[in-house]
Write a structure and sequence with these properties.
Layout: E1 9-15, E2 19-25, E3 31-38, E4 50-51, H1 53-70, E5 78-85, E6 91-93, E7 103-104, H2 112-121, H3 125-133, H4 142-152, H5 154-159, E8 162-164, H6 166-175, H7 182-185, H8 199-204, E9 223-226, H9 229-235, E10 242-244, E11 247-248, H10 249-257, E12 264-269, E13 273-279, E14 291-295, E15 299-306, H11 310-320, H12 322-326, H13 331-343, E16 353-355, E17 375-377, H14 385-405, E18 413-417, H15 424-434, E19 437-441, H16 446-459, H17 465-472, E20 475-479, H18 483-502, H19 504-510
Parallel strand pairs: 1-5, 5-11, 12-18, 18-19
Antiparallel strand pairs: 1-2, 2-3, 4-7, 6-8, 9-10, 12-13, 13-15, 14-15, 16-17, 19-20
Helix pairs in contact: 10-16, 11-14, 13-14, 14-15, 15-18
């Protein structure tokens, strides 16, 4: 069952919330080909978020098959498969491995009334969770969802044999084997120090009777099983190819970016912004803010979230850039045009400052405030559209600085990925705002790459995650902070912090929460 020496490629699969990515990597870590396929997300009630588990598998299998056929890679070249995907949620299967209902996703909000009730009964409820998991619990975490199902769909749980996460469902469909890795178990919520489940958390949610639903833990880089004949027929892979257990999408992306050594930061600048710092020990500061992920290789990842990232630029384009949109043929041309426009405004946007709290969810860093809203500040009749556009770029960069500022340890450098990393203009602003070197690695699918590297470690290609990263992550662009620009942004950041603090009562009053 061991792959032959002719097998020289790793397949990484990243099952996002709405898009599955399948990518091939060689021994040098080069991204050779990518296929992306959308998966449907359903909203059966306001605030709910579900997906059909069988459809997710069918889309994943089709993406793998397309990757091999469209790019003409022989299946014999695939030495192993690595998996990652959107984290936690509830992916329930029966004893025969069939879904008992549609998967409930991580961004589902149905458990909020339950959480409110538990907080009313136990005022320290959320703090107890944070002290165990190191993370502010989201409504779509696994344990609150299982408690909700126990109260609202007991017949569903009666039919369930296993509670999985997204990547573990795909691993089961590929191999017939069931397990969960520590990166998922510790944020269900679980035990961040022990990198696994927490009996105390099961008890806190009143779920002791449902503990048997949760599978055995297996290291992310270990082999989960081997591609079955049925899965081979569906995917085009060879039967017997080893499949690694994998890791959740945030730790896998950090690995793909090369952020595995303590003190290295990484920012995933997409629709949301995730600012992460690698630590040698679990970090529980600041209290009741941010997330903490266990990392394969004995590291931890402290993360701070801003829930509006490239969304801010997309909003500005939609509202104020109709002319530019009409006169370009491709997204690349549009963004180049916008950067030239923003470049007509000086560093600091002539005093215009943008607070990028554009999400209806408000902010989660440096504190949780669902009433927070975006603002342009400091405007006069002399300001131009170019000033406002530059202020958007700068405001998002200042929010990245904000994420790292509340970390108890300082980042030596920031590895940048996501849609925003494609922009040299934005990357330089981030370096200037944070005062840190900003490094952009080669490639586009860092979650899939991290999963592939885990598979490579499991196959013995590299002795450790650190060795895999050292041999495969290449920096293609580097941006150093300009001291003069950084001095301007230091002054702006002081104002940014004042606004963030002083506007909080106004935000709450506007939301009727004063």
């Amino acid at each position: 069952m061991i792959a032959s020496v002719a097998s020289d490629l790793l397949l990484g699969v990243d099952a996002g919330t709405s898009v599955v990515k399948a990518a091939l990597f060689d021994r040098a870590g080069r991204e050779l080909a990518v296929v992306r396929r959308r998966t449907p997300v359903e909203t059966p009630q306001p605030g709910w978020s579900e997906t059909d588990m069988n459809v997710v598998w069918e889309v994943t299998a089709a993406a793998i098959r397309s990757l091999l056929t469209e790019h003409r890679f022989a299946s014999e070249r695939i030495a192993g498969v690595g998996l990652t995907g959107n984290m936690v949620g509830a992916w329930l299967v029966d004893a025969q491995g069939h879904p008992v209902r549609k998967a409930i996703l991580w961004n589902d909000g149905r458990t909020q009334p339950l959480i409110d009730r538990l907080i009313a009964a136990m005022p320290d409820f959320m703090t107890r969770i944070f002290h165990s998991s190191g993370s502010v619990m989201q409504q779509g975490c696994t344990l609150p969802l299982i408690r909700w199902l126990a109260e609202n769909e007991p017949e569903t749980l009666a039919r369930a044999a296993h509670a999985l996460c997204c990547k573990d469902w795909i691993a089961y469909k590929l191999t017939g084997c069931i397990q969960i890795d520590p990166t998922e178990a510790s944020v269900m919520p679980g035990d961040a120090r022990g990198c696994g489940y927490s009996d105390a958390m099961f008890a806190l949610f009143g779920l002791d009777d449902y503990r048997p639903l949760f599978p055995r833990l297996a290291p992310s880089e270990s082999v989960a099983g081997f591609v079955t004949a049925q899965a081979a027929e569906q995917t085009g892979l060879r039967p017997g190819v080893p499949v690694a257990v994998g890791a959740g999408d945030v730790p896998a992306s950090a690995i793909g970016l090369g952020a595995v050594s303590p003190g290295v930061g990484c920012t995933l600048l997409g629709t949301n912004i995730l600012n992460c710092l690698v630590a040698a020990e679990p970090v529980f500061e600041p209290v009741d803010v941010g997330l903490l992920f266990c990392m394969p290789g004995g590291r931890w990842l402290r993360a701070m979230v801003n829930v509006a990232g490239t969304t801010c630029l997309d909003w500005f384009i939609a509202q104020f850039c109709a002319v530019e949109q009409a006169n370009v043929r491709t997204p690349a041309e549009l963004f180049a045009t916008l950067e030239r426009l923003a470049g007509n405004s000086p560093i600091g946007a002539n005093g215009a400052l943008f607070l990028p709290y554009l999400s209806p969810l408000g902010i989660t860093t440096p504190y949780f405030e669902p009433a927070a809203r975006a603002e342009f500040f400091g405007l006069t009749d002399q300001h131009t559209r170019a000033d406002l556009l530059r202020a958007v770029y700068e405001g998002v960069a200042l929010s990245i600085r904000d994420g790292f500022a509340v970390m108890p340890q300082e980042a030596r450098e920031i590895r940048l990925a996501g849609g925003g990393a494609k922009s040299a203009f934005w990357s330089q602003i981030i370096a200037d705002c944070t005062g840190k070197s900003v490094l952009v690695p080669s490639g586009t699918e860092f979650g899939a790459k991290g999963a592939a590297l885990l598979a490579g470690v499991g196959l013995g290609w590299w002795p450790s995650i650190q060795d895999a990263v050292q041999g495969t992550v290449t920096i293609v662009r580097r941006f150093e902070p300009n001291p003069e620009a950084s001095a301007v942004y230091d002054r702006m950041y002081a104002v940014y912090q004042m606004l963030q603090r002083d506007l909080r009562p106004a935000w709450r009053a506007a939301a009727g929460r004063a």
